[in-house]
């Protein structure tokens, strides 16, 4: 019996990768320094895994930015615009200059697009492919050099590669590719290069290689059975190659794909038994995996809870005999969880007892491996400890919350939109507003840090925040916006702010997880029943409203987004947890209304991103997602405007869901796909207020009044003026005033011009 993990966090226990890459980008350190940090981080991971007793250790799970980008570079699938003399030369500086230009753009070259890695909060760079591209192995092959580095340390690793199907299916056709051409058409060519690479790895001494194919957990991936058979049939046939592990995760892959893989000569299949527990039945349904070894992902790589060891053991037990062998593993790479629970010194011991971060998960994998080979006796003590702290101890139950939710039931909707219409026939045309946050200046950050560290007291902190709110309000009045915001200076992050104020959540000190490149986030942990001890935003918003005669919009984060950007308890359905968060928000919404706030925005930035990978699960998800939003927002009078905001642009797929949220106004990220949104809305017969973001806040560019005017006129084709709102496409927090101020002035000017013509 043996043990492994699919991958391990790359950022370093103290975010060393972030610091080193940012220093390199700023020109403060040379490439050699970044490379030295990277080499140390890799070594640290391999030694950690080895010392924990993990038998089979992966390599090439490190990346200076992103593993999809690494794969594109590995096969020289680099778009033309990065092939200029600027990036020429074989030296490491030139190589890195091009690599980071692809990731982050340069003065005049747009980077690759970035998007979410399946349904995780990790983001990858989208390769751009076209039919005339010829993949070839790059001169410096990262998987080989990292394998050699580990081997030099006496650790023979299993190099990890993004599999050919996943790589091609996550890529997009380059702008110049013919209509209808799919990157998957490069498969045969690319397989030739994978074959070369596998042979080189074998020659270097690799006994195994891991090809990651999470795409098989999606509907699209499951449909590509012919390509799957071709890919692994062909790689399997190679004579001088390492053993192949085809590793899948984020869901089950279905019996058809299992059968195909079973037929091919690959030696091992990795399955995610946490996100896809039905895999066990699927294996049984095809009478086992025959000659293939199963890497059984029983330890959750996506969440922070300690494994239910007895349950994991019984799952493993039920698989014995259904494969040639069983390897105990994590459900997916540990990239998605914080590194080490031992770094947390302030967690309540009762909560801590239930947690396992990446480092602790290694122990669980090793323990399960031992139990499987030596029998339960090997781990009797640990099993006993696990039973003693089983999550149903009831310690985190809030009976009041549960009783209130039961009493409320599902029927919480306020008057339907049509009836509410009577309360607001006088909505002015093209009202201007913003999404909530204003630039977080150094002063604002410093005030928060000083307060947190106790360097300034509550009174001084309040004074500074109020001064900032006054400043932001004065600016908005001067610019001439219609519905104002307080600017969110008191919020470090739209989820963490609320998590810190709700019971049932804890936040960590060092629980960083990579979001993309050097950006890391620290998701809160939702461990128990959620409730609101006291109002969370009312003081700030009512202060703001007291300083202006214009309406001030209250700002809250919605239940789905609270869940999407946290680690969430897994002992009850997500929908039940969402309802608890929604109830707390419902109280906050009522308090805001009672305090005289007439516009309340409940952000559901993550509504689209939590949509399950497989269509079979969409209806169920949307039902609870929509239900929780309505629970949060339906306690108000017809005259109070409920707004929502979503960071997502392809609305075609969820226009219906937006309608059902029943917000009075929905603002969306549409700056980059304006026409599409307007068309989607027209087709769907959408009749509520809509604020299609009129410019892209993700870029420092200041939009002109002319282009915003054109966008608004365009939107008026599908939306009548009283329902059209004018706003940027997301919060302004990450921008500077030098861009924000002129951009908002142009936006207000554009709205004026269009209104004048109505
Ligand atoms: N109200 C939030 C803000 O403006 C919304 C951010 C988001 O959508 N990601 O910052
Ligand atoms: Zn947004």
UniProtKB/TrEMBL annotation:
Active site location: 698
Enzyme's top EC category: transferase
Pathway the protein takes part in: Amino-acid biosynthesis; L-methionine biosynthesis via de novo pathway; L-methionine from L-homocysteine (MetE route): step 1/1
InterPro entries found in the cross-reference section: Cbl-indep_Met_Synth_N, Cobalamin-indep_Met_synthase, Met_Synth_C/arc, UROD/MetE-like_sf
Bias (Basic and acidic residues): 412-427
Binding site for L-homocysteine: 435-437, 488, 603
Pfam families in UniProt: Meth_synt_1 (PF08267), Meth_synt_2 (PF01717)
Binding site for 5-methyltetrahydropteroyltri-L-glutamate: 15-18, 116, 121, 519-520, 565, 609
EC number: 2.1.1.14
Cofactor note: Binds 2 Zn(2+) ions per subunit.
Coiled-coil regions, chain positions: none
Residue spans crossing the bilayer: none
Positions of the Cobalamin-independent methionine synthase MetE C-terminal/archaeal domain: 430-752
Binding site for Zn(2+) 1: 645, 647, 669, 730
Amino-acid positions noted as binding L-methionine in the UniProt annotation, renumbered to this chain: 435-437, 488, 603
Keywords associated with the record: Amino-acid biosynthesis, Metal-binding, Methionine biosynthesis, Methyltransferase, Repeat, Transferase, Zinc
One Gene Ontology molecular-function label: zinc ion binding
Binding site for Zn(2+): 645, 647, 669, 730
Gene Ontology terms: biological process: methionine biosynthetic process; methylation
PANTHER family: 5-METHYLTETRAHYDROPTEROYLTRIGLUTAMATE--HOMOCYSTEINE METHYLTRANSFERASE
HAMAP family in UniProt: Meth_synth (MF_00172)
Free-text function comment from the UniProt entry: Catalyzes the transfer of a methyl group from 5-methyltetrahydrofolate to homocysteine resulting in methionine formation.
Protein name, per record: 5-methyltetrahydropteroyltriglutamate--homocysteine methyltransferase
Organism: Nocardiopsis gilva YIM 90087
